[in-house]
């Protein structure tokens, strides 16, 4: 006790604003359920596993810890189920997922000799008792994030509900026997609350669901509210009401009155259909959808180093699939696992390692690659809590702290919504590159980096060369290059015949185009005509020919398949297509040759423009969406590199500008006004005037953001090289390079109508076989969907 009293100055009573970690170690994935439990530092409130707590003592000198241990207890099988009041799983008020019940035990531990004192104990100093009580009663940071991950948005009351117009057309809806008025469907039916029409719902990505008759009816009539038949019971709050105008599930406080208008006695109806929210929840927890996940096949589970799954935190499969492939590359494996131990990362981390990207990447790497957590999950035998058996499933590790850190500077990745795996990969690479800027030789992001050179030749015969850096090669898919055209023609005939007879196609009758990957690569470097190109040699608009090539071949080449295209009216559409991908590819012919003897350069009018350069991260993401490179540059510059969304909005509003194709130097010479007083302020900080002006211009005149811009300039601000060069190798000497032969090592597949919905799965070639990584499910892949990839990862073959 005297030892504890002598260290009371190192004990703090947590305040409401303190972040308390008590669910997971900050440098490993140990939890209170782990063998050694968890040790909470009673000064910093960080948590550590038994193998790591002495590291914290050595670094901070904090000796007093609350030791938390959870052990599973036997629970009666006939315990009553509570009715859920919240669309969530495993949280108070949500659906019971029948997880095991654990009981907690606590004790005070004093380092370095691990002296233990019981808790609760009346003889403990009051300060210690108050501190421990506050820690126990608080909601840990990890639990707050878990609740946020599983909690859906609250429904709003529809703005149309209180004054909804209902037609007196004599429609009376029977209590059963419903079918769509436009087709023969008898499920997924929606009752329009204005005119009483019964129509089928939206068609899903896999062809299931309805035939879009209900939403088409709204587009014609603008009658906004509909209720899903089969979800109406005496509990009207559980009915599924949808507002097409508000594009959301809503609450209709007058639903009983609106139903009575069509003769519906809701008290006699029984629930027969899942609500949209329940179906969404069902999809969020059951991902066995189709071939991408190899559903219906007996997958042999794998355990051990490199075979650790990642727990889905709620729409986090984009992160899980991407990180599994990234950590299968030599650069990331070496940087954060082989060449850097957890102790080195922890010792060099700031006071709070939970917010340090280097520490959390190292933690994730060791969690995935060490094999420590890739073991069969233990299951308590029925009736005997002391006996356990091993299941064929692993629990996986939850990447909560990593997700929190990597998403800190990105508003979208901070949410619990589904995201685009491509955007996440580019954001990850950008953050890793910045994090390693002081030591670029150890930067694993460099293994993905390469140069692209575009050659423009106008009708004068003169040429221009533009160079840029990128981390992905975004490829259009030439559907006219499909190798199964005869089968496609037969399929279209069959489809027309069945549509004429009102019959539906079965899944095994559907034929999709098959396009070779090499044809997609050829499209990238094929000559392209640019109309209305402004030639500085002619001082007029003309037609130019653009070709593109690579100035270096990276260690790892990431190919992005542009399966999502924009139709007329900027309506996104997903291409239903297969890509035939060989095990190895040779892209040596895509090497850029640079300025050739006898070629004459176009006069350069951009050199006199000392204004803002385009942020290449923004430009690269816009280019990957299918926009022209010059247009993307202008959009980034015109929005002061504010972000992708701002640049996209500018593009959509200026696509038809008469000067959209003119060079940047001619069209955008004028720089925005910069407040001289703010320039003087930055100069007083010790910065050069030119740097201060550029920083203020890039940050919209905000001094704080300008200072951040100076210390962390966006990639492309200084690296963008638009000057002609005789050789790409001279510019890209610092980049990895080699021969143009590559082998396929992994792919990220996507299922869904948009990159921001659906599900992502990774397949990786490891130890001579294909392995599927589907969140926490890891197993031998019997039929990898190589032709359905969204992102393909190739490793360069040297020698």
UniProtKB/TrEMBL annotation:
Domain spans labelled USP: 308-797
A Pfam family per the record: zf-UBP
Matching SUPFAM superfamilies: Cysteine proteinases, RING/U-box, UBA-like
Biological process annotations from GO: cell communication; protein deubiquitination; proteolysis; signaling
PROSITE patterns noted in UniProt: UBA, USP_1, USP_2, USP_3, ZF_UBP
InterPro entries: Papain-like_cys_pep_sf, Peptidase_C19_UCH, Ub_carboxyl-term_hydrolase, UBA, UBA-like_sf, Ubiquitinyl_hydrolase, UBP13_Znf-UBP_var, USP
Protein name: Ubiquitin carboxyl-terminal hydrolase
Gene: LOC105176757
